[in-house]
């Protein structure tokens, strides 16, 4: 039986079952015309860059099942682009318009006339956001379930716009209004009162929203599953300087959130009493807890909360600076369900914390310990009592200036199934240490060595799984690029920004030998001439080349 004898529907089911990434589908599309047609139907997401715009009509025809369109990386003002999308015949679920100077009103109207079933609209970091934009969004997309209008650069949106929006979006389930500094308790109250399906709400840096307003809104919508906000760290004058107290009414309201699965209180003034209330409300349903840079609570409050919420999977305790290795050891007995943890900025944590987590958290897949005391041996720094953990796939250890090759090799020996390792700014790690990492972790796909001062690493074996390599700011020369080109033939992205010692010779060797390369960052490579870059763009049109802050090439 040949490929053609096997029905396309069966091939499509096989590809779906395998859960192949975009890059794997792209490789399959080269096998035969039948596979090309099948993989085109399995492309559901498209990211658009400025140079991609002329190709959009052909891309829309090629990928008829697109559901997600990301326009957030466009640099120019493309008024007619939304009109073109509206006429494409696509049935989109999500459009991302983030990072634009303003929202194109006429384009939104045209888009809404043909895509009223749009469910998700992301408009974060818009240059200017007004009440009129909110009204048009609600009118054009009445079935929206998720809306992100967070952190506009110039927010003129007020309670009036949010009230009109909330009265028209009955199906709204998730909304992010963070950074809209003019809105008050009235906006929060109207969203919780009018959007009967509301489950998730975020309102960071909305300091006209009071603690009393938050408490009232929570009591109006006790079925919330996710809430994210910050209690401002302003100080009030008294006999001395004291932190703003938490309203008892707000504390009591959190006891009513019996369906809470996620809470983000980043950069907030909280208290142990507040954490006790969260524990009493959420209990075992809580899956995500973010207490980044929170103050005025103690280890007792965090420990009590985690002891009552032992289903937490995502835990973020960044910059909780009172945490020690002993604290982590005590908390780890409650973290049997933990999959990701972020302890960056916890400056007292040593190697022991890494070993404790990999030993006591059997489901842990991602560890972030940037800007800690890693590299210093703690009380539990012996390898004797630690077993291999195959679940850990991603480790971020950036800016640990004390981290050495010896400590790094210990870490990767415990986590041999690593797929991503980030060592940005770890100046104590040498090329020899990196080679040992690659020997012990053959599944690594993403390696970040930016700003490490790396000069050379001599690999004498194939590193076939490595797809992303970041060497920006390093001291490598052409010789190292030659090694990379011969040993890392499967690279998709290479970043050598500000590598002042590389020349066109080394870059050419990488491009010629790494046949699958999709993106190459050459910013500030002083010895790579403009003429060579122009030749490269002409001879490798599918390669996205970055040479200035404005992207020169594009790929999708």
TrEMBL record:
SUPFAM superfamilies: RNI-like
A Pfam family annotated for this UniProt entry: F-box
GO cellular component: SCF ubiquitin ligase complex
Classification via InterPro entries: F-box_dom, Leu-rich_rpt_Cys-con_subtyp, LRR_dom_sf
Domain (F-box) ranges: 5-43
Family annotation (SMART domains): LRR_CC
GO biological process, one term: SCF-dependent proteasomal ubiquitin-dependent protein catabolic process
Highest taxon listed in the record's lineage: Eukaryota
PANTHER family named in the record: F-BOX_LRR-REPEAT PROTEIN 2, PARTNER OF PAIRED, ISOFORM B-RELATED
Name used for this protein in its record: F-box domain-containing protein
Originating organism: Vigna mungo
Lineage: Eukaryota, Viridiplantae, Streptophyta, Embryophyta, Tracheophyta
């Amino acid at each position: 039986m040949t490929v053609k004898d096997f029905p396309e529907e069966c091939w499509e089911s096989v590809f779906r079952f395998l859960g192949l990434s975009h890059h794997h589908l792209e490789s399959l599309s080269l096998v035969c015309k039948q596979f090309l047609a099948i993989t085109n139907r399995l492309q559901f997401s498209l990211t658009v860059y400025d140079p991609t715009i002329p190709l959009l009509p052909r891309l829309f025809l090629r990928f008829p099942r697109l559901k997600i369109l990301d326009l957030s990386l466009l640099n120019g003002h493309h008024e007619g682009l939304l009109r073109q999308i509206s006429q494409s015949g696509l049935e989109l679920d999500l459009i991302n318009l983030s990072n634009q100077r303003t929202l194109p009103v006429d384009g939104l109207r045209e888009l809404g006339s043909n895509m009223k079933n749009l469910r998700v609209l992301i408009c974060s970091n818009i240059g200017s956001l007004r009440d009129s934009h909110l009204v048009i969004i609600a009118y054009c997309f009445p079935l929206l379930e998720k809306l992100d209008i967070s952190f506009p650069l110039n927010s003129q949106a007020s309670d009036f716009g949010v009230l009109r929006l909330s009265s028209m979006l009955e199906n709204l389930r998730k909304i992010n209004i963070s950074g809209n500094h003019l809105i008050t308790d009235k906006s929060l109250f109207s969203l919780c009162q009018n959007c009967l399906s509301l489950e998730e709400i975020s309102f960071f840096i909305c300091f006209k929203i009071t603690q009393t307003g938050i408490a009232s809104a929570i009591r109006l919508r006790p079925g919330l599953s996710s809430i994210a906000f910050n209690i401002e760290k302003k100080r009030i004058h008294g006999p001395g300087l004291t932190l703003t107290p938490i309203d008892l009414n707000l504390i009591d309201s959190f006891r009513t959130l019996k369906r809470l699965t996620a809470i983000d209180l980043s950069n907030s003034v909280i208290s142990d009493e507040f954490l006790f209330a969260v524990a009493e409300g959420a209990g075992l349903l809580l899956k995500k807890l973010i207490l980044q840079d929170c103050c005025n609570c103690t280890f007792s409050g965090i420990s009590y909360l985690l002891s009552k919420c032992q289903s937490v999977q995502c835990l973020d305790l960044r910059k909780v600076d009172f945490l020690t290795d002993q604290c982590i050891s005590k908390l780890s007995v409650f973290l049997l369900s933990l999959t990701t943890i972020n302890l960056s900025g916890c400056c007292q944590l040593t190697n022991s914390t890494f070993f404790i987590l990999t030993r006591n958290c059997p489901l842990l897949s991602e560890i972030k310990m940037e800007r800690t005391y890693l590299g210093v041996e703690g009380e539990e720094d012996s390898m004797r009592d630690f077993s291999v953990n195959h679940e850990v796939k991603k480790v971020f250890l950036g800016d640990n200036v004390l981290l050495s090759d010896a400590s790094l090799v210990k870490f990767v020996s415990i986590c041999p199934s690593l797929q991503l390792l980030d060592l940005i700014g770890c100046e104590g790690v040498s090329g020899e240490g990196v080679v040992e990492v690659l020997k012990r972790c053959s599944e690594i796909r993403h390696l970040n060595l930016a700003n490490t001062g790396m000069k050379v690493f001599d690999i004498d074996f194939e590193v076939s799984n490595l797809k992303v390599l970041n060497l920006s700011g390093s001291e490598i020369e052409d010789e190292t690029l030659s090694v990379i080109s011969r040993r890392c033939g499967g690279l998709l992205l290479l970043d050598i920004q500000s590598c002042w010692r590389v020349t066109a010779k080394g870059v050419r060797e990488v491009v010629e030998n790494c046949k699958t390369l999709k993106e190459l960052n050459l910013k500030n490579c002083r010895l790579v001439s403009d003429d060579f870059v122009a030749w490269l763009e002409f001879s490798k049109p599918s390669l996205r080349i970055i040479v200035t802050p404005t992207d020169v090439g594009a790929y999708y």
